[in-house]
Amino acid sequence: MSRVSKKSLIASTIIGALALTGSNIAAADALTDLQKAEAKIFKASAKSQSKIDNIYEQTQELIGEYRSVVDEADVLRGYNDHVQRMVDDQKANIASLQEQIDGIDKIKQGVVPLMYKMIDTLEKFVNLDVPMNVDRRKERIEALKEVMGNSDVTTSEQFRLVLEAYEIEANYGTIFDAYQGELDLGDRTITADFVHMGRVALIAQSLDMKHAWVWNNDSRSWDELGEEYLKPVTDTIRMARKQLPMDLTKLPVFAAGAK
């Protein structure tokens, strides 16, 4: 090879090397630009993702709040329905009470005359009945008459007292009792012991236990008993007072329908 040719070859090599170096530099610049662009894109993408995440979180919060509001609305709706049912029931009760109140006057118009009639009937019954505890029973009737004229006592309370008096009178038919009181013999009045077995027999005995009488409801008077009844009467009085154990005894009893 000639000297010229070698020099030309070296020059070509150097130029090629320079050209390659320039090409590498240009490629490196392009790569750098690409990397910067990618970094910028990644940064923008991260920023966008952050916004998306924030929007998602806000959306979830709003959805939660919406569901909470919906649930609360359902609860309130159920409670309002419950309250409405209570209001409707109260209105029905008020209407019923008003109807009862409106009918009270009519009830009083029927009950009040009935009570006066019941008291009058009770008084007649006591006057015709066996006179056991008669003073107390007559006092109870007088008390009923006073109550009927007392405006401070309600009609219901008046009626209760009348019924109670009837119940007490009914119980006299089953009571075995002894008490002390005044015995009216017509020509004189003495203090005596009384004993009665329901309405079957009413007997009185003087406190010295020397005389005894049995009530005759047909003649409305006291019949004196013979001496043979004195001890049985005394024992009966003591049994009624629980001073002796209950036992059989002989007492005079008027047969039903006997004259």
UniProtKB/TrEMBL annotation:
Coiled coil region boundaries: 80-107
InterPro entries, alphabetized: UCP028069
Record-linked Pfam families: DUF3450
Full protein name: DUF3450 domain-containing protein
Stretch forming the signal peptide: 1-28
Highest taxon of source: Bacteria
Keywords assigned by UniProt, alphabetized: Coiled coil, Signal
